[in-house]
Amino acid sequence: MAIFGSCAKPDAETGKSAALASARARLRGCAPDPEQEKGALRLAVGAVERIDNSTRVRLVGYAVGDDADFALPVYLLSRGRWLVEERARVYLLDSDCREYKLKDRIDAPGQKVPDDGRVRLRAGEARETVLLFPRLRDGVREGAIVYGKRVIAFSMLLDAE
User: Fold this and answer.
1) What is the Cα Rg of the chain in Å?
2) pLDDT, tens digit (0-9, with 9 covering 90-100), for 32-64
């Protein structure tokens, strides 16, 4: 007995996979070309969540194999913006290529950040900072944080709304 295409149930997983692949392709098209990671510093996104009027990103810098400098964003009054090492921007990109500029940085209690934003990490050591951006639109599941010349993709599987 033959099953006709119009009678078969649609495969929900295939549809979800296709939608995610499409979102990732759009994101790759608008994100800057990432710089190859060199040196001992690595960056990772610990979590991304929507809260009230903001999107909170937990960013982790960690040193692999050797000591490394983790340059955190610093607000420069003279330029009126947040910059890393006084020249590089930090922003979020959603899957529709919308940019969300950095609004604030929150450091862990008791962890003083030097005025220049450089934190020295010993080999094997990690440091977390929280970055606040405007709230990502509802429905956004894929995105990337552009941190200077680094691009770190993320997926939001569940909303914390």
Assistant:
1) 19
2) 887 777 789 999 999 999 998 999 999 999 999
The SS3 assignment for 145 reads: strand
Counting Cα atoms < 13 Å in the Cβ hemisphere of 80 gives: 0
Q: What is the rounded distance in angstroms from the CA atom of residue 55 to the CA atom of residue 155?
A: 13
The model's pTM? 0.80
Place of tokens 């921007």: 89
Distance separating alpha carbons of residues 148 and 74, to the nearest angstrom: 12
The answer on pLDDT for 159 being more than 50 is: no
Return phi, psi of residue 104, to 5°: -165, 160
Minimal CA–CA distance to 136: which of 58, 23, 55? Answer: 55
The identity of residue 102, as a single letter, is L
Contacts of 103 (CB under 8 A, 6+ apart): 54, 132, 133, 134
Please give the structure tokens belonging to residue 74: 């610093």
